[in-house]
């Protein structure tokens, strides 16, 4: 097996994604968790770029790293929550977590050690964004527009529910 730049980039991005996920589970401050989540999302987008899926990588960064993460952060910060029930993790839990991570890494390594990959055509990445756009706005235009309307209705419903809760809070 020859070590190429693509292999090194993949291993680095995969390592950042795994570290971000582990940090997300172990950190206690919400803002720190969100930063770890962003690291994970951006590294996954980098893996998509290595797979010649530039459109999916751009969507990953725009939607997940940007919008979803900000919405999660605002949702957590705007809700009332008590931090009194928070407990610190013991050394036993950290050791079990580390052993679980090692076991998962060993299972993945064993699973892909002698995995034979069938060579696919190398021109899959040519004009993939244009092909997605053509399919989305020709064959799948009705489901795309229905999804847009559904998301708009959900947004309006969330605003109406938030206004009702605000009025109920004012009466108390």
UniProtKB/TrEMBL annotation:
It is a multi-pass membrane protein. It is found in: Cell membrane. This is NADH-quinone oxidoreductase subunit J. The keyword Oxidoreductase does not apply. The keyword Membrane applies. It catalyses: a quinone + NADH + 5 H(+)(in) = a quinol + NAD(+) + 4 H(+)(out). It comes from Neobacillus niacini. One of its GO terms (cellular component) is plasma membrane. One of its GO terms (molecular function) is NADH dehydrogenase (ubiquinone) activity. The chain crosses the membrane at residues 6-27, 34-51, 57-79, 95-113, 140-162. The lineage of its organism: Bacteria, Bacillati, Bacillota, Bacilli, Bacillales. NDH-1 shuttles electrons from NADH, via FMN and iron-sulfur (Fe-S) centers, to quinones in the respiratory chain. Couples the redox reaction to proton translocation (for every two electrons transferred, four hydrogen ions are translocated across the cytoplasmic membrane), and thus conserves the redox energy in a proton gradient. Its EC number is 7.1.1.-.
């Amino acid at each position: 097996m020859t070590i190429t730049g693509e292999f090194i980039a993949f291993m680095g991005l995969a390592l950042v994604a795994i570290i971000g996920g582990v940090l997300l589970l172990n950190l206690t401050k919400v803002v720190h968790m969100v930063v770890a989540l962003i690291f994970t999302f951006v590294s996954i987008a980098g893996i998509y770029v290595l797979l010649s899926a530039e459109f999916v990588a751009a969507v990953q960064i725009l939607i997940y790293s940007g919008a979803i993460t900000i919405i999660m952060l605002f949702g957590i910060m705007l809700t009332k929550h008590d931090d009194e029930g928070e407990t610190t993790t013991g050394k036993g839990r950290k050791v079990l977590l580390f052993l679980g991570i090692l076991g998962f890494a060993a299972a993945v390594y064993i699973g892909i050690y002698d995995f034979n990959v069938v060579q696919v055509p190398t021109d899959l990445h040519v004009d993939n964004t244009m092909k997605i756009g053509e399919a989305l706005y020709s064959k799948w235009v009705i489901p795309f527009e229905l999804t847009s309307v559904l998301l708009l209705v959900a947004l309006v419903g969330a605003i109406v529910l938030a206004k009702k809760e605000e009025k109920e809070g004012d009466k108390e």
